[in-house]
# Entry
Amino acid sequence: MARYIGPKSRIARKFGEAIFGPDKVLSRRNFPPGQHGVNKRKKTSEYGIQLKEKQKAKYTYGVLEKQFRNLFEKASRTKGIKGEVLLQFLESRLDNVVFRLGIAPTRSAARQLVSHRHITVNGSVVNIPSFMVKAGQVIAVREKDKSMEVIVDALNGFNHSKYPWMEWDSNSMSGKFLHMPDRADIPENIKEQLIVELYSK
# Structure
């Protein structure tokens, strides 16, 4: 299963944002990586700006190029605003839903929980992080895994009201995916129109 396993702080510094979660390095070294990072003044081309936005979206959601391209093509065939539909598809990935429900502290941790068969969808174990969750489906922690330290710690004090397109039942440790999120509700700082422009060339 392909995934990015390189240095995360370096990527976060490249974009100037903690796209992988809280990062102490970013607060200490808030400039791009590399020997010219501090003094970098080179003007970025329009293509470079668009490419950077696509790369940021890919790293944020933990998706590699082929998967990302396939999602964009699927979004292009779907009714609605291309960029917004693309983000909705990324948000409906199982690993992202597990992260949004607070079951895991980061998307990479959520991906691992899914891959290791700790998560169920409508009562059945699903171990495919890219599984697309549909409206009405219930995502839960497998019964025998509910006491796992990483899950209990992640859920402790988590504010589920941040994501109105899902509802959480703390008693059963399960959440329902109510509907696709509106763009205004998705907190990621991604300019999806730049991605659409890049792929439209």
